[in-house]
Amino acid sequence: MTTQSSPYHDLFSTLDHLRQRTARFRRVAVHVHSTDSHDWNRTGDKALNERGKFTNASGAVNFVEAIKDHLDLVVITDHMKCSFACEIANVSRKEKEFLILPGMEINIKPEAAISCSRLHILAILPEGSNIERFSRLFAGCTEIPDDAQRRGIEIVSGCTLQSFIKRIHDEGGICVAAHVNSTQGIRHHFRQTASDIIKILFTDPETKTEQEQNITDELKEYLLEAGFDALEVAKASDKRHYRWLSTVKGHVVSLPITMKFDAHCIEDFNRPDLVTWIKMTTLGIHGLRDALKFPETRIRFKSDLPTPPSPILLGIEIIGDDNSLFNNERIAFAENLNCLIGPRGSGKSTIVEALRYVFGYNHTLYELDTTNKLSDRIREMQKANLSGCLIRVIYKMQTGEKRILEATFDPEEDYATKVFSSDGEQLSVANVESSGDYPLRLFGWSEIETLGRDTARQRDLLDRLIADLPQAKQERDDLVQHLKKNRQEIEKIINDLSIIYTRNNGVIRRYSEYKAAFEKLNTDEVKAHFEELDLAQMKNQILGVMRENIDLLTTKVKDINVSLLREGVDDILQKGTQPLRDWWLADAIQKLKITDSETSVQKYLLDVISVINELSNLLDHNTAIIKTEIDTVHAKIRSSFADDSSMQKIADLRTNAERRLNEASSDRDEYLKTWKRLQDVMTSRNQITDQLIQSHDRIAGIRARNNQKIETTLNQYFADHMKISLNFQAGGDTRRFVEEIIRNKIGASFATQYKSRRIPELLAYNFNPVTLVKALLTSNVNLFSDCRLPNDESIKISTIEAEKGIDSWTPWITDEAAQVNVLKENGLRLTQLMKVQEIEWDDEESILLNDRSVGELSPGQRSSAMLPLIALAESTPLVIDQPEDNLDNRLIGQVLADILAALKEKRQIIVCTHNPNIVVSGDAEQVIVLNAVSDRKAKVEKHGSIDNDDIVQSVIDIMEGGREAFVMRRKRYKLDIPVVALAGDLR
Length: 987
Prior knowledge:
By secondary structure, this protein is of the alpha/beta class. Helices cover 49% and strands 15% of the residues.
């Protein structure tokens, strides 16, 4: 909860106020009895329900208190009585977010065609109705006494059901058929009367069954023609029986269904399973009547009550200046369908582009269609309309926490967003999109049509319909990252190999020469004289390695500078103000205990250096001993050769040859160790690539198993003449792979005229990036000479060409002089191959409309095929700018509006539109009306649901061309429907 001290308290309050006229689900019971009913408290506690509690001076207030915590809108329908209902209805009007409407449960004996028994119907009249208003319903009915004298068992007779319902409507009321399946329900009596006739007229069982089905169909039409506003049923599943193709109306109709609440005691008020959830903007007769016109989207029961979409955008604030389109505007969004309407130039698309900028999607503008320069046009719009704007988006996360995404528009920066908590604390969020905490899907103007030509993006959206895929794809992405890290390690080893290979003027390459020279001198006789010296020198060699290690460790420890703790701070302090410097010196340094930390680190470093120095001194002492031993051996050898000058010469030459060989051997040994490291890392790389192939196969399998289910899901909104299907080919998306084969000249290595011979496509079809590199490294000619393209067997690689290609890409050769393997071109070939292995490849998956690729279709067909995919792909907030573009009105009315109406309960949808079908048929919970003040200025004029008369009028004026144009079109189309209360008709 936001505190009063929050810097955003006023913003949140304003947005809450702007949402007051949005439509939302309310708990409704249209059949509740009071103590005025003769059968009050049939089953409840006697003391709790004692009539005296509700007949005294505070009785009406007590009744309201007993029920208001359980429901939002209640209709009191006592048996043939209304006095107490009118009283408590008036008392309830003082409550906020709770209202009682006056009603009556009426016994009526309709026309003989139905039954000679009584039926129960519910009459609901407007707020403020009194006894006299109810009494007018019984005008001409001589057997109905005044309200005070009624006992609740009186029966209305002498008029048809249709005419009596008309009386209720003439009083501004609503009529509901009470518990239609009970013995006092209309369905029971209609079917019973007809069944009696069937028994008399028909004896054949098959004919009886057929006639009974006809009864069911005729009952539906009768209920429709009678004028009932709703039917009361015993269970939610019954509603399916009252949606049918009407022969009278000529189209599918749905009779609104409410749940049978029928409360007769205080305990009955708390029955959540029997609540009817009805979406309305305002509590009252008008809100209820409006909701009953849209039963598909406005009426729910506990079993099908939608979970509120999460996360959602709560609103946006744009604070502009003289150069921006908006000055200071706040827009509140409802959790379901939001429609931004207004004439061209009123700023609808600017709102979308403000959202794009705040969420950091300018980063990916390059992905949009470059042919139409869409990204350039978006940037131009942003610069023209958002310059000088501070933009704040209030985002309600899946956890329920509110976050403020704030950015000052800067045309030179693609991302400038800061994130704050609801209390104003800035949070550490490097990138809103990549953080994953603020998901949003945004499609600007014409981006839906563009999507139809981008199969990779289609595949990404299709993947979001599969619950098992995110984890599998994350595993694949992790493996690719492991590959890249592995390559970085290999590149470092390649550099180390190069340094060793060229060290000491490339002495490693004289290894074979020096080895042969030494072995020639080092005969068995000579070797016997030098055994003691060789041992002493090996000891000295070991101590020399220890000396190098100690010196390296000493250098590293001495390079540690405690001043690094403050590195960069002084630069900031010099640029900052005096208060910043005072804070650092007087506050931060003490709180962070920086000086104490520096002192402690310096002490530990001195201790480490002391230990190393002690080890160094011991090494020096032992090295001196070994050198003395070497000198003694040398003296001994010289003494033994004193009388033989030829042996002295051999000894000297042998010593020199051994020194040269040792120098070359030392570098070669280090090189071989490093080469072994390279092979080990390459082995690890092979294991990663094997896992990567398995990961791709697993992803392809998941997609293939789910494709039929996805096709069914996408087709649910289309007519028979429009069929969506999926084109799927495992590993078939090789576009980037082909491009890299050409760019790296891999194809050219196999043959001349390789493009015309389609060598790149041949390689990409028969290999993936991983297996192609493995084939080159294994030097298996058959793997290439057996390659074919399925549509052209003549395209192939010969054995000679395969050998040529493999030879060209083998990354190493043997250096005979050094007796080691060396990398070609200083490792460039190997690096290229590793980068090829990291090229993305994926399955080919795209949308087909009537078995044709959407990329080949018209813009309108592309857009229509993409709409279900966009809407169904996920549950995150969805923003679309003018989705009706490129669609004909039939598709908008039959497909788009249905999709939005159905999906808005699962995800928040924000739409900019010029088409009334989207607003009206989509049954928008929030309509934001914008207007162009001038060529360079726009403003928000009003918020509210389609239930509000002023919003409806704006829809008529902006989208229908005004009332006169709307009426003229109805006449021109010969739609002979009376235009009464135009706003209500439009809804």
